[in-house]
Amino acid sequence: MTDDLFTQHPKADGTFLVAALYHFVAFSQFEAFREPLQAMCDQNGVKGTLLLAREGINGTIAGTDAAIGAVLAFLRAQPEFATLEHKESRASKMPFVRMKVKLKKEIVTMGVENIDPTHIVGTYVAPKDWNALISDPDTIVIDTRNDYETAIGVFRGALDPKTKTFREFPEWVKNNGSLHDKPKIAMYCTGGIRCEKATAYMKEQGFDEVYHLKGGILKYLEDIPAEESLWEGACFVFDERVSVEHGLKEGSHKLCHACRTPITAEEVVSSFYEAGVSCSNCYSSRTEEDRERYRERQRQIALARKRGHEHIGG
Fold first, then answer.
1. Rounded CA gap, 201 and 142, in Å?
2. Domain 16-103 is in which class?
């Protein structure tokens, strides 16, 4: 089982194209757009998740090159998304089970009223200029992601707020007066969207020199050669690949489907690991009743696969 779980994936030339995208814009008709967008994705066999809100769009989708191209063209045909940018990577197998277009209050949930990245935001820094900025002794580097993401990779020297959700980030800032000790704040996240709101929030809080990595970790790993990189580890992604590395190659991490924590090959050999049921991160916080429920779910997944079906709960 262990060998099967951690078989090496093909490199960045996988069958499926993965497109990560977001765009902040006033989008008053977001509710009416949900059904046409869902239909467009379904017609092209595209899977993933897209969030629509009054403030714009956010999400990641996967499919054939032609299918992703069709969906992106459909989005850019809307006046609000004419300048939509996206980031591409590859997957050796379809990294999503289904297609979901959801309506939300925010496309990335910070929970702070009146934070508008279209009005105020930090200064974008291209990946080629990022190393110089975060190596500057006058710079404080902040990872705006959550603890399960930072656990498998960070930029060298970055502060890790160890948040469980992005909603906790504003409180962490308020409780850390040392953030005022240096003139520059450099922030980063997976694809850039969280930093749009995080830098806007920092500017609202009176921080003057606030910067963020344009395109996020994904763009940095795509553009910067490993031998020049200040990135350490892998980057967590929100699909079945679990992680990517330099060159956006698929990483070796798997996901514990009990606690949604990324796990390494070493953790799979732990006595606490049971596929889909537990790992060393969650064993002590779950009851035996919990684990039996997870075992039943695994049995249902195995049965569905045997019949050639996708198990929705998988």
1. 13
2. alpha beta
